[in-house]
Fold these 2 entries.
Entry 1:
Amino acid sequence: MLENKDKSVEDNTKELIENQEVISKEVESAVNEVENMVAENSEKEEKKEEIPMLDYASMELEELVEQLKKLIKNNPIQLIKNNADAIKNAFNIKFGKLLSQKKEEFLAEGGNSIDFQFSSPVKVEYNGLLKEYKVKRDAYYAQIENQLKDNLDKRNVLIEELKSLIENANPRTMYNEFQKIQEKWKAIGAVPRARYNDTWKIYHHHVERFYDLLHLNKDFRELDFRHNLEEKQKLIQRAESLLEIEDINVAFKELQELHRVWKEDIGPVSREFREEVWHRFSEATKKLHDRRHDYFKDLRSKHQEIIDAKLVVVEKINAFDFSKNISHKDWQRSIKEIEALRQEYFNVGKLPYNKSEVVWQKLKQATKRFNTAKNAFYKQEKSAQTDNLKKKMELVELAESLKDSEDWETTTNTMKRIQSDWKKIGHVPRKYSDEIWSRFKTACNAYFDRLNAHRDGVTQEQEAVVVTKKEFLEEFKNAGELSIEQVQEYIQKWRALGSLPRNARHLDGKFNKVVDASLAKLNLGREEIELMKFKNIVDNYLAQEDYRKLDSEQFFIRKKITETVREMQQLENNLSFISNATEDNPLVQNVRKGIGKFKEELDIWQMKLDYLKKLDY
């Protein structure tokens, strides 16, 4: 029998409340929490692919502006919030530092603080982009809010249509009309979360009224009830199986989806099963809710452990002693150690924002002490490097002015002196280093090439040296196995025979090869052999006063040291990625063996460099 047509909305709501299934307060609380989350998610749009987060903190102001411009131009406005916030944070920090620097310069020039003003084209462009982003973002969310309200109005209209259908039922058309209402309901998008649950409950109440009053086609109604019962039983089984999923967050997220499907996609079941299926579904919901509650309770108990461990790291940074740092090398070592402590802080574990902020501020305060001292050092270092650049530029200009001189004796002494002075001057700013070194080396090489060409007029005496050394070289080749003392004696005799003219210096190379072969036959350590071979070559350069080759040799050795250190660091970095492997792991053994070889090579290169540094040339 149909309901009275004059029944008001208030009466319907009252009937709805009176007819709700009776469940325990604990179950009801758990179900309400889940359904409130479903309501909250109802007005959220579907997740889309996230935009990659770049390292904005390392970018300059101009690049940050360019990235913000690309984000706004190439992406939906609702997807760029996280990236836009990261850019905003990086820009404010960098521009704040620039502003502070400009103000400091303004005051240093005698300006009054109250008169200081500063802006720049990049700041103006950034402000314009930020305004554009906010306008588009606000317009988007205003549109979303209007859409949610519009969807709510549409659902309320359908509720009224359903009530009218029940109250003015036409046995021949009512079921088809009801199907149309259901299709329209499912097609309507999200509604405001504050109204989601109430709206659905009223709608569902009238759906159940419709089915209870649907006597026109009992077989069809029972078929529909049976289908809905089967679908709801599947949801119950899935909800019960969620207790077996290890990741509680994944399980709870799926539970919310099950509740949404229960409400939005599946119709009512016959009255005799309604309380039973809802009771089972609610019980499964409560069990998972309780497990999640216990999980977060346990997690909160661990938060204090994480906080305590992080504070221990903060104290290590506070106690870090950098008072003896006097060089770039000292500070680079300290920077690595501080960074390792910071990484230890992060590795301890993550905390929710409301727990992490206090300890995070303590970390920032601890590192600020170190960074202030470091920045002061490098500010002073930058000033010293500027002075060094000025000194080296004076040497460059002097070398370039002398490269065409023919006052051989005076100019040679001057060139040797300025080369020595160059080595005593410290570092210069990196962006100028290669350029001034190239100019200085070119000028010096040009002069010494001319000097060597001047000396290359081969005399009869030099021809005699060539003949004598060729004979001596053959004697050395045929000498057989020699002791270390005998090899050294051959080296001394070779030098005593005199210097070769430039066009015959290839004989020095042949002699060095015989020395290498003789040393290889001796029972000596590799380092000792390498050093003897190296001394033989270098001493020849000294005897010939070939300072360009000595400089080239030193440059080459420094380059090899840098390359060897880089290769070692790469292997050590690789080893950190397989730290869980045991020492007998073949991969670990190979990496450690490689590191050992590089260490041996590094010792030999360093030994050669130390020898060169001791020479006075």
Entry 2:
Amino acid sequence: MNVEAKIPLTEYLRNYFGFTSFKGNQEEVIKNVLSRNHTFVLMPTGGGKSLCYQLPAIIMEGTAIIISPLIALMKNQVDAIRAFSEDDGVAHFLNSSLSKSAIEKVKADVVGGKTKMLYVAPESLTKLDNIEFLKQVKISFYAIDEAHCISEWGHDFRPEYRRIRAMVNEIGEAPVIALTATATPKVQHDIQKNLGILDADVFKSSFNRPNLYYEVRPKTNSVKQIIKFIKNNSGKSGIVYCLSRKKVEEMAETLSINGIKALPYHAGMDSATRTGNQDKFLMEEVDVIVATIAFGMGIDKPDIRFVIHYDIPKSLEGYYQETGRAGRDGGEGKCITFYSYKDIQKLEKFMQNKHVAEQEVGRQLLFETVSYAESAVCRRKQLLHYFGEDYNEDNCEGCDNCLYPKTQFEGKDYVTLVLNTVLAVNEKFKADHIADIIAGNITQSVQAYKHEELPVFGEGGDNDEKFWNAVIRQAMFAKLLDKEIENYGLLKVTEEGYRFLDNPRSITLTQNHDYSEYGNEEMEKDSGSRTSTIDLELLEILKDLRKKVAKRNNLPPFVIFQEGSLEDMAMQYPVNLEEMQNISGVGAGKAKKFGKDFADLIKAYVEEKDIVRPQDMVVKSVVNKSGMKVSIIQAIDRKMMLEDIASAKNLDISELLSEIEAIVNSGTKVNLDYYIDNVIDDERQQEVYEYFREEAETESVEEALQELGEEDYTEEDIRLMRIKFISEVGN
């Protein structure tokens, strides 16, 4: 069909879509598709990918088959196309959400030549009746949207996407256009090879989004920071991404009770609720959507002003795609990510049950993410380099590393010490253990292996284990160390590491920010270290009060409130029982039992000192309705063995005990006698119980073991008895 040669493309553009000019290389892409050539389009979010297949579909004879991964995305795009046309039949989607009669209507419009664009999910494409139907249709071309889903190296790999070529072969040959907003050179090649379009004409746009501001913050008091940030950007649209459905629900509820219009979105919700929440966000009935990564693909909301990652994504492709949903109109877009290496360790744990090849891919993607989060280099430069593009500006003026540079220092001696320590323990230990040895921490694990006797023990005692963990990670980035995920994360010295030891060279390390101390006026932050935010005078007064309350109740002070709870009070200034429940380690039960004296004292102190309590210090939190905690309490009530509870919850015993400790420390009573009586005899039970009642000055398990004898008791014994003691006498 050569109608496009007679009428200028800009006229079609104006007539059908109301635009007067193309963006970037849209026109070249469209001409290539009209010439019936295979086409590969790499265009960042907001660059106008959809138009690259929508306009040719309208111009060309037949129906374009557009393969898309999400029902919500299809509906959104079909609605948008219909808004430009007088005939709703111009675009349809065919997927599992349609009724039988709706499917018949779609097929009738396609056969009748009304439909220029038919959106299908890859799963629908594999159904025999759909294949037979599409064989009868004149197909103008196939468009594969979100094509990165084809590659196992992409951030959203979907196995069914790899079957598309076979389906195309069966239905009938036509040109293919593959489109994605994120693809490294490796992913691009994988896509083209799998689709059989290695000869495709490739159109790449720059990945640079100059209007976006990138920042990575330490995951400290992150919920409070998020609430304060959103309130400081009141009325603006934003997305908060969390990795788990449970966290999405908790975060959405926390934001709501703090006066922010927010709704959750994840695949576990029923379809009507999920779609309803998405529509409310698009219609600006709510300001914030809290979502898993399922949200946002193809959502055409141009004025999203911030994207916050509560959990760091599993890959840089995912990060780029999700942050790219901000500022699509070219306006302001703030991309704030909260990072803790513990989150990476959790993701690594999930990998352990996967195939070795899958582990290797996931491991490499995570490595790139950690490198990005911990690096001192311009964030924009790193992102663009990852996608094969050079960025040569010295300062992008749009990321935290450029605006607030991290301190860098010579690391040759530090790295040498780390490598020697790994070799000193025969490469049989994880990073945390290595860091403890170097810092000189006498932990149970260090003592168990007598590693306090090593010559390297305490050699780096001037710095703590956090510093040494950061050095270890940066040695991994430099490929001097390797971590065996399939072998419990044990550290090994690489060949490059051995060469470094033979001939140590200069290596620049970065002093990581443990707290957001770098004065970004646009962001709210904690200043300095944790201790600098604690009101030390108030802390001493609270400790005195705790002694009095403990004496009055004939209980050890730690049973009333633990040290961490008092420190939190001295930072947050709770002045009533409702606020007291938000303090770390204080639930409703403990607040009711012991909280009034403390809240009254703090209220009087605040008034006397004329203290202005910062907004983020009075964040309301959701009453703990955690399904995990409730089901653990119910299981204990049914007298289930702890090993069985742990197995059912996918926890080890230590993690389960931590959950039970949190329940008990918050004021809830549990009865573990049925279990304790099975594992600790009466005499030993009595000895530990009396220790905590009469002798213990703190709740420390280590001190208890030293006092009672490590040969007679395990850490688990002490923790079990401490739970029993606090539950019986404190709750």
